[in-house]
Amino acid sequence: MEFSFSSLSTEQKKNFAFGVIFAFTFCYIYWFHGIKPVGAKIQRKEAQIKQLETDIANTEIQARRLPEIKREFADLTTQMADVDKKLPKDKNFSGLLRLLTNQLLRFHLTLTNLVPSAVQNENLYQSFPLQVTLTGRFHNLGRFLTAIGTQQRILSTENLKITLSGGSDSDATIQANFTMTAYMSKG
Which one of 25, 31, 53, 164 is separated from 68 by 20 to 30 angstroms, measured CA to CA? Predict the structure, then answer.
């Protein structure tokens, strides 16, 4: 038995056309208002799940690095304490005088003049220059300058002028004029 659309009656053709239109309309509505939005919602939820899984994996990696980060923090804290010793936040004039006095006594030098200058602001630090004049033996001066240069706090000596002030060759005394600069942190 063959099916032929032309062999159907007008009423059957109408019912068939109505059925096809109804089926097409039903499929269209079901697809665009049922399956497609649910599929899009599923895709969004899957993307959110994938993002959360990525976030969880990254968090787990960071959690495994926590001991390393704590060690780095402790190292940086120690380094910062060392920097604070080398570049204190204030000029600590009394500490500088104590250091200068101890080194002068240690190397048998005599301080004849000490003139502090104003604090000078630089980009990242401040400097506190002191004009120093002292007398003593040449080698003692060299040891004194070495000791000043190797202090924990950053100190520099500049513009050193040495003049012979008297005595025989074996016991000659000199007079030294120089600028000793102490550096400070701006923070």
Answer: 53
Percent of the chain with pLDDT over 90: 32
Instruction: Kindly give the residue spans of alpha helices, DSSP state H, lying in the chain.
Output: 10-30, 36-86, 93-106, 138-149
Give residue 19's domain range.
9-86
132 class by beta-carbon count within 10 Å (0-12 exposed, 13-18 middle, 19+ buried): buried
Tokens of 60: 């787990």
CA 177 to chain centre: 40
Residue 150 lies in a domain: yes
What's the pTM?
A: 0.57
Question: What number of other Cβ atoms are within 10 A of residue 153's Cβ?
Answer: 16
Last residue of a domain, one of 86, 107, 123: 86
Other residues' Cβ atoms within 10 Å of the Cβ of residue 178: 20
Are residues 78 and 62 located together in one domain of the fold? yes
**pLDDT tens sequence across 86-104:** 777 776 788 888 989 999 9
How crowded is the C-beta side of 6, counted as CA atoms within 13 Å? 0
Supply the CATH number for residue 130's domain.
3.30.70.60
Whether the Cβ atoms of residue 119 and residue 93 lie closer than 8 Å to each other? no
- The answer to whether residue 15 is domain-embedded is yes
